[in-house]
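TICKET: design request
STATUS: open
ATTACHED STRUCTURE:
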């Protein structure tokens, strides 16, 4: 989830970068086109803070259209943003990016979508298009996304699929695939992500289903610390099934605690005979 947080953070400099282009361009008058559009911003000590380039900038009244947007933000990590078209409304401060919108972090993480609206006054970034977030450890794909960069929260709206490699050195066979009807809600301050509605997690021959799964992350390593599964929990491995209303997975011990009338159905020896019993249990 670290990648999603970085993508939220980079949107925070979009307003400053693109809006900074409003004054010098509008001073030239409206209805004009400028070639080789280029702007830079600097820290107080003279270090470059950001830069933005575009092939052209067209000024029409309160609207500025920039083609082939290419912006960088420099800091602890360099972030790059590209889009075929950027549109700035000087009156509202709203920005729309269109066509091949790609945000790339220095370590290779990326966010891709076809459009992105930045509403300055509401501190809101939103798209209804397909969104893909990826880095070395995870890929998340979903339709529609909205985020509050200032509050460091985001929501991938629907049809979400997340693929996670628990540890970078682990084999592809250990890949965990989690899908849900949505939404996927992310809260950076609380270091958690919540997947809702028909959640299914699959790893090798193990499948876990629940109405909702909350994942808590280590804030430094960004690895999973704990998963809380709630509502119609079902764990399937081989021919065995376990049911409960709640399950808590602790990553350090790799144990699952089941509560809420847990019930286990086992395939036992002897011509497919089945044993079923109910009790509080740890797995």
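STATUS: resolved
RESOLUTION: sequence designed for all positions
ATTACHED SEQUENCE:
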């Amino acid at each position: 989830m670290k990648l999603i947080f970085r993508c939220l953070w980079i949107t925070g400099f979009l307003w400053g970068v693109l809006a900074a282009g409003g004054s010098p361009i509008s001073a030239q008058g409206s209805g004009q086109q400028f070639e080789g559009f280029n702007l830079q911003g600097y820290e107080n000590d003279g270090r470059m803070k950001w830069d933005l380039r575009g092939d052209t900038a067209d000024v029409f009244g309160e609207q500025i259209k920039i083609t082939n947007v290419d912006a960088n933000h420099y800091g602890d990590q360099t972030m790059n943003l590209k889009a075929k078209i950027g549109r700035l409304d000087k009156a509202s401060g709203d920005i729309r990016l269109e066509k091949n919108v790609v945000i790339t972090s220095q370590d290779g993480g990326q966010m891709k979508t076809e459009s992105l609206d930045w509403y300055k006054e509401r501190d809101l970034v939103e798209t209804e298009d397909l969104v893909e977030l990826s880095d070395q450890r995870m890929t998340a794909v979903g339709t529609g996304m909205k985020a509050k960069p200032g509050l460091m929260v985001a929501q991938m709206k629907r049809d979400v699929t997340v693929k996670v490699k628990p540890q970078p050195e682990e084999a592809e066979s250990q890949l965990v695939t989690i899908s849900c009807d949505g939404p996927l809600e992310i809260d950076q301050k609380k270091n958690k992500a919540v997947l809702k509605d028909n959640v299914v997690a699959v790893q090798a021959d193990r499948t876990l289903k629940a109405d909702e799964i909350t994942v808590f992350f280590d804030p430094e390593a960004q690895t999973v610390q704990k998963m809380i599964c709630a509502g119609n929990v079902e764990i399937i491995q081989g021919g065995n099934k376990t049911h409960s209303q709640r399950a808590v997975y602790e990553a350090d011990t790799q144990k699952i605690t089941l509560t809420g009338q847990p019930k286990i159905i086992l395939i036992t020896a002897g011509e497919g005979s089945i044993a079923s019993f109910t009790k509080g249990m740890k797995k």
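CLOSING REMARK: The chain is about 10% helix and 60% strand. The longest strand covers residues 224-237.
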